[in-house]
Batch of 2 targets.
Target 1
Amino acid sequence: MPSPAILAYWEGVLLLAGMVGVVAWKLAGGDYALDELFEGPVREADGTYTTQTSAGRVQIFWVTIIVAGSYLLRVINDSHQFPDVSDGMLALLAGSHALYLGGKAQGMLLGRFRDILGRTS
Amino acid sequence: MRRIDFWAGLVGAIALAFYVAVGLSGDTHTKITTAVEYMGLIVLFLFGFLVLIAIATGRIDISGLLEEKGDGAVGKASMSRFQLLVFTFVIAICLFLIVVNSEEHFPDIPVNVLLLLGISATTYGVSKGIQASAKSDSITQSTTSSTTTESTTSLPKEP
């Protein structure tokens, strides 16, 4: 019978790979909706909502993929301790998220810029 | 089906007890420690495996994992949920790799990694707040407009 350490290793591999595999399989099969991922809701002048492609969503997607991918690659190259995330990368991530949230708040709560300007003038 | 589960569990438990009693070397304390280790690992694996199978077969429905809740007009897929999912998986995989490769103790997690996860989770929370705020705002607006319409229509006509 394998030792508890070996058993724990294979258990971790099976459960983690299984979870990632199931989510990836469902994503690929279309069970999890990824349509309109880049489209954000916008409040119209009459109070209803429509959607339009959002630059904030596109940039947060790419920043997420780059930051997460680079971190994973660093851990794969040297997996003896957690590599530190640089302050610059953290600032990039925070800025990207702030931009996304700002755009979303503006789109959902205030509406398009032309409507905001129309209301104020 | 339940009978098969029961008998399989019983036979497994007896086999494990037999292995611990006869197959393992050492004193009683070592044998009990090893038995508890195996039992914990097996129970943990079975819990995880059952949840995994239930998700794969659809008995546990997580099809709305990446969907935004709200009116039909609101976008279907949620970017805040997507990025939280990506970061959670990446940090989980990294933690597993590092725990497996570090031989001495549980690895320290740097503050900036916790900040990274914190930013990701905060974005998700704030995003939900914006959605809830927009929804309540739209409900208030529709209620106000319907009240205004009612009061306008109930105004007495001037002679």
Target 2
Amino acid sequence: MLILALDTATPAVTAGIVRLTGPAGTAASTDTASAGTVSSDTTSAGTTAVAGGAVPVVEQVAARVTVDPRAHGELLTPHVLDAVADAGITLADLGAVAVGVGPGPYTGLRAGLVTGAALAHSLGVPAYPVCTLDAIAAGPGGPALVVTDARRREVYWATYDAEGTRTDGPHVGSRADVPEPAGRLADHEQPSPVGIVRAVAADVLAAREPGPLTPLYLRRPHAAEPAARKRVTA
Amino acid sequence: MARIIMGIESSCDETGVGLVAAHDDGTVELLADEVASSVEQHARFGGVVPEIASRAHLEAMVPTTRRAFDAAGLSMSDVDAVAVTAGPGLAGALLVGVSAAKAYAAALDVPLYGVNHLAGHIAVDALQHGPLPTPCLALLVSGGHTQLLRVDDIAGAITEIGSTVDDAAGEAYDKVARLLDLPYPGGPPIDKAARDGDPHAIAFPRGMTGPRDAPFDFSFSGLKTAVARWVESAQGRGEQVPVADVAASFQEAVADVLTAKAVRAATEAGIGTLVVSGGVAANSRLSALARERCAEAGIELRIPRPRLCTDNGAMIAALGAHVAAAGHKPSSLDLSANPGLPVDTVLV
Ligand SMILES: [Zn+2]
């Protein structure tokens, strides 16, 4: 199955086409949709698992990534179309959309979520939410600490065990409150399209109904109720 | 063959998705107009909180779109073009609508038109009263805008003749409502309270009407302060505030200045049609006084029904239909929202 992977929760504007092939006998392994050659792009996180084994194969077909925290709204859809063109496919060939739901600074994060939701709606395919920190952790294996920028001098963070399962977080807070890494430290990294799909591969292969694309804001909106009205006369 | 235009609006606190049919004879027909409002979430803050509005837009965007297609009995593949509010408005709120519109246009492989919200408030009248005569004059009054605009071509030539130098008319309503312990937004409760009041009970000032003032600009800040002073001095004397009289007299001052300036601008420019639109256009005193004064001056008055006056997606679809029919080049898919988009830029 070909999956469109999106994320706008970090300074990167990320759109990629990823091929997900399940272990023999699963629905995705029988997918015959043909696409362009698999990119040898070395930016893809992690290598693919052994084909035919019990582990799904996750391969990057094409990706467009620009690091510019102010360009999420502007560049995301052009990146999607360019990645689709690079992959030699059309949007109609996609079987699902996987979207990073943060945590991330809000304005850019929303651009990715609404783009993913609208694409999935108009293409009639499911949209899977992915915690962006899980997508960054997915891949190399081993315990990990993932830290990303939350602005206002704070960070988002989560910890993962040797199986890649999240053990704590996601949280938002000051850097001083983040635990010491027990293994790999992913500090201000961005999720790769492969990592995004790897984080939801099991759900996609099992054809599980995706949850709603709910952003992980982790903070309440900044709003104050008005104080008592000031008199204009003395 | 009619062309189906989808319109998306998210500049403030309403998530709107509209569908219209643009017919070959130039008429534009309303097919669906779905709106999800976050106004109640802002009420306790006394005004729109941008982050709350943006969050609500994201939640409502796809469900509102689904409702619009269901209401029109259309499928997404029927759409021939997507129009979206590119500005002016709240940056984070606009971004949600613009991002959604780009995704829909890309997925459906149809042109995208990023258009001006203010021009949408004028274009919407064509859905109710037929093609707009040009030139016409438009008075836009809402919580966010108070402007007099000359429209020579709704798809491209709009000129500002005057605007507020401080508060928008709707903002003044919100502030006076708060002063009178009436709920937010202030327009409807003040209108209701004013029905039982005497509009001539208190002579509140008419801002920017002096001989040296800009003839077509507006100011409502002084009026708001005058109302506050009047209420405070009544309270200082231990008197019960006559809410109905204050509301009626305040509303009279607003409607008087708005209609006097609009009619004068139309008369001086020799323009025969006035369109009054925006959320405050639903105000009963404003529409009654506009009707009276336009009739005296021999000007045709067009006021869209209240549902079309407030922010919605149908107005953006209607403007998109005009822009597409005029043959203008569609927007690029790397379009960005422009919170300060000037009124003379109809298409981005
Ligand atoms: Zn408006």
